[in-house]
Sequence to fold (235 residues):
Amino acid sequence: MARVTLPRGDEKRAAVESMFDRLAPRYDRVNRVISLGLDQGWRRATLATLGLAPGSLVLDLACGTGDLCRALTRGGHRAVGIDLSAGMLEAANCDAPLVRADTLALPARAGSVDGVVCGFALRNFVALDPFFTECARVVRPGGRVVALDASEPTGTVARLGHAVWFRRVVPWIGGRLSGDAAAYRYLPASTAYLPDGTGLVEMIQRAGFTDVRRTTRTAGAVQIMSGTREGDVAT
Fold:
């Protein structure tokens, strides 16, 4: 696989926005294939981890085409999807209100939502500490944050299989199904932006969340991080 140069700062923000605008029309179809259909189960696990009562107001950050928004609505929650990509929002298929905005400057008052979810997007943000700080700002005390993303398996066999599938087969399949080979070379490579599991847990704690937990699924190829907002609401 060709070496991928990973952008930083404003260059990354513009590159990610443009990439997802291009991918939007075929994004869901490609996801189902490259995840072997497991992505829906990962999202169900994310909502089970959220653990909020029906009727809760939950922001789906980097909502894409609305997979988590649909799941939230089915679970009786009041979902609002937020994404930077106009193309993704245009391609979205859900009943939730959708807002185009940067996740580092959310259009929500301090302490105004019950929870935040985010699926497979942490590595696409310009910076993670400000992202989790912004989540802590908008989530009320006692509210929840849950983030789902890719991870690296720890077992030798699982790590080898994951490397072959995620870094070689996924770019090949994704490129052919989407017509955008560069994007599907970037997406596996972009996991290099993520800290290890301990680093992510510490980031969430620093932002103002307690009871922070990290679990993995599919032999460690996927991780779910969660935390509870406590203390005074930031202003």
In short: The first strand starts at residue 57 and ends at 61. The mean pLDDT is 92.
